[in-house]
Design brief:
Helix content: 25-40%
Strand content: 25-35%
Number of helices: 17
Largest sheet: 10 strands, mixed
CATH class of the largest domain: Alpha Beta
CATH topology of the largest domain: Phenylalanyl-tRNA Synthetase, Chain B, domain 3
Distance between the termini: 39 Å
């Protein structure tokens, strides 16, 4: 979860608004208010006034900054949301960005605005930089889907062009350097180029933003120009741009920055973006832009979820003082999110906001009416016993994520387009790194082994965890089962060693098994077997194929087994 640092006096001034009288707020009051944003105060430095806040909501990027937290608290105090004139669509843009053809192949979308009248302070600059980093790293998936640039507006001549160039064609002095470099040199030398250059891997031409005077502004998503993109304390004219691969995310990110700067007293000027082809928002897109996400919620659904009758007036008021636009109907409310939010994915999102707005203390606690005694299921008893035995055999347990990528679970294992390589896919994924559910444990163990090359050998690792098996006969299209996997890695690892561990495991589990040869792409031919119990296949064992080890970049021989404990007890 995001953890941010803010300054108490800066926070206090934002709470009251730019024209209000400053008022000191106690730390106890801050902690109470943070419940509105699912935040927790993790530290306070009285000497510097720094507050370290951990936020528990990963769906609200607008709250990952001092301005967003203060805005949510201020709305609750004032009972209504602040109006942002630049989002009405009535302001005619004075400047534009022209997107050249070909950008759709690399990084197609851009949104931007100008901000005048707010004189940047040291604390304000620190918040701008922190928000830029948090949104790009977390919300923008390490700049893959969203990256942000902030510039000195007075140095830019419009219109700005967003286009592709050869890496050796354009050059400028990047932030953090004093030497003029080509874009190719930045990818090889600059720390940000080394860190984020993989985003542009395989692209023969790369993005650049430059103004009408042919002055480079930045090399998205890598680094800004030092001449234009180095904002300093005292600057009162800013240009903010967001580039990325997802247009709604790009626009939302800009909306957050525009609202933040407006809250600090800036006048926001929209900018027109002209695309070569039509986008989901049109060919000529004015940004910032209200994406107008709304949803109709039945009142009884909210009341049922919260376990208490509230009535339509209470629900409407609770949502309005939390920042929603609400229209009450017969037995339902039509709710619309403010323009800096796009987290309305389910009715429960609204229910949670009603609860936070009303205050959890307003709900009457209900004690359980029945007393029941719980116990471990049969599969948990067997998996716990298996864990004890594996530890006794000298193995170290790991716990890994059930989500991963097809490349890890199938590609690296040489089982693409085979019966072993079928996985359960995740719809509408935010990143390909977590786009499917694992169908066996071995790839998770090999991922840990690949990262453990500096640890003393031998390595003996195991995991007992859930996997998802595609099954068209099942109601959900897949079934969840518990699997035990183990690997041994060292210079002399061989089949007999892992076989003896399997033999001992089955002996103490009180089960009989047998092996039969099986051709499996992940294992050496002739050095792999299918594990059968009562002639029913429940797993595989063998010496991992050298090509698999090479794909994982593992330098030592590895032997392994993968057993389906759910099938074992059935």
């Amino acid at each position: 979860m995001p953890t941010i640092t803010i300054f108490k006096d800066d926070f206090e001034s934002l709470l009251k608004g730019t024209r209000a009288t400053h008022r000191t707020v106690s730390i106890a009051q801050v902690e109470e208010w943070l419940m509105l944003v699912k935040g927790e105060l993790k530290g306070h430095n009285p000497d510097t006034g720094e507050l370290r806040i951990e936020l528990q909501d990963s769906n609200r990027p607008d709250l990952w900054c001092c301005e967003g937290i203060a805005r949510q608290i201020r709305i609750k105090q004032q009972g209504k949301i602040a109006q942002y004139p630049f989002l009405t669509g009535k302001t005619k843009p004075k400047a534009k960005i022209v997107v050249k053809p070909g950008m759709e192949q690399v990084r197609p979308y851009v949104a931007a605005c100008a901000a005048r009248g707010y004189q940047v302070t040291s604390q304000g600059l620190a918040q701008l930089i922190q928000t830029q980093e948090k949104l790009a790293e977390i919300f923008g998936h390490k700049r893959k889907t969203v990256s942000i640039g902030i510039y000195q507006l007075s140095k830019i001549t419009f219109p700005v062009t967003y286009e592709l160039v050869q890496p050796g064609e354009a050059r400028f002095t990047p932030l953090g350097m004093e030497t003029v470099m080509t874009l190719a040199e930045m990818l090889m030398v600059h720390p940000k180029g080394v860190e984020y250059g993989g985003i542009l891997a395989g692209a023969s031409r790369v993005p650049i933003l430059r103004d009408a005077a042919n002055q480079p502004l930045s090399f998205p998503p890598i680094i800004n120009s030092r001449e234009v993109g180095e904002v300093q304390v005292g600057d009162d004219q800013l240009f903010v741009e967001v580039t990325g691969t997802d247009l709604p995310m790009v626009v939302l990110t800009l909306n957050i920055f525009a609202a933040n700067l407006a809250d600090r007293g800036a006048t926001i000027e929209p900018i027109l973006v002209e695309y070569p082809t039509r986008t989901s928002l049109g060919k000529r897109v004015i940004t910032p832009q209200d994406l107008k996400k709304s949803k109709t919620i039945p009142i009884h659904t909210i009341e049922q979820a919260l376990g208490q009758e509230l009535g339509i007036k209470v629900v409407q008021h609770a949502l309005e003082v939390y920042g929603y636009e609400v229209s009450a109907g017969k037995g339902s409310v039509l709710v619309k999110l403010p323009p800096y939010r796009q987290d309305l994915m389910h009715t429960m999102d609204v229910v949670e906001d009603v609860a936070m707005s009303c205050g959890y203390g307003e709900f009457t606690p209900v004690m359980p009416a029945q007393f029941t005694v719980g116990g471990l299921s049969r599969i948990e008893q067997v998996s716990d016993r298996a864990r004890e035995l594996m530890v006794g055999l000298g193995f170290q347990e790991i716990i890994s994520n059930i989500l991963g990528s097809p490349e890890q679970y199938s590609g690296h294992m040489r089982i693409d387009e085979t019966e072993w390589g079928q996985t359960v896919k995740v719809d509408n994924v935010m990143t390909l790194n977590f786009s499917c559910l694992r169908q066996w444990i071995l790839p998770s163990l090999l991922r840990i082994e690949a990262a453990s090359s500096r640890a003393f050998y031998p390595h003996r690792l195991f995991e007992a965890g859930d996997v998802a098996i595609p099954d068209a006969t099942h109601e959900a299209g897949s079934r969840t089962e518990t699997v035990l996997g183990a690997v041994i890695a060292h210079a002399a690892a061989h089949f007999s060693e892992i076989h003896s561990c399997l033999d001992t495991l089955f002996y103490y589990l009180g089960k009989e098994y047998r092996l039969e040869p099986v051709p499996h792409p992940s294992f050496l031919e002739g050095r792999a077997g299918r594990v059968l119990v009562a002639d029913k296949p429940i797993g595989v064992i063998g010496e991992v194929h050298p090509e698999v080890l090479e794909r994982w970049q593992i330098a030592m021989p590895v032997v392994a087994f993968d057993l389906n404990l759910s099938q074992l007890i059935s």
